[in-house]
Design a protein that fits this description.
Tagatose/fructose_Pkinase; EC 2.7.1.56; ATP-binding; kinase; nucleotide-binding
Length: about 325
Amino acid sequence: MTALSSRMATLTLNPALDLTVHADGWRQGQVNSGQSFQLDAGGKGVNVAAFLADWGLRVTATGLLGDSNPAAFEALFRAKGVHDAFVRVPGATRVGVKLVDGEAQETTDINLPGLAATPQALAELGSRLAALGGDHGTFVLAGSLPPGVEADFYARLTGTLRAAGCFVALDTSGAALTAALAAQTLPDLVKPNIHELEAALGRSLTHEAEVLEAARDLLRRGASLVAVSQGERGALLVSAQGAVRAVPPRVRITSTVGAGDAMVAGLVSAHADGLDLAGAARRATAFSLGAITRLGAHLPSRTDLDAFAAQVVIETLRQVEKT
């Protein structure tokens, strides 16, 4: 790999402090007892940066971060060896509450709104991204857009970064994903879940053939890999090499927080290592399994990840051309 392509950056415009509360058997509308809680620096791009750093890659994390409560983020970046290039903005970074029911193996999310992005903050962030583009070959654009950021922000940034020769991965939803998939230049890697993809395309994808055709249409328009996560059914990955489904083994879930972010990190690391489609599917699923077996954005050892990867079932899917 070149010096340019070996460095990675993640962008998180709407980070959050994740308050994870373990309350087995909790009931809505009742007084519940919790067993434990944990506060972690989070946000999709922050999590991806942490996972990539755990794998041993050189990572820079940037975005917008409230200047009144950055300590947890700064501690995470120091511990992981992630370069902190966040733009500090006035105010407090939002809190996201995760209610984990270990008995039901379910996590309920309550996401509070983020800080509004001012034109000044976005201008400073633009300058920082331009500087990073000079020596970072991979960019991961992840998470929701805060107030003050136009829906086509990721779409425009993708065009700029890809024109500069960077590999771009995108993991977002809603209007931001719709705009990105409608743009002239698509990201190299797109990782929606099935519901996000349906919403972005404006149609239901009931059958596997419909999902495959939607993914292949994105490939024809410039994407190189489309990964559609489908919960316990696993993930469907489509590239020029073909299409596969990665079916994970059953594991004891500690928390589902960050599982999708770990999958993105696995796919990005697989791209960096030049893995084929099946290898990328195993790597990404192993990262996701590693994430859900522990709290916070932390991967287990490579030995454990290799063990997870070996248990992933890869199914090759037939793609039918349109007539």
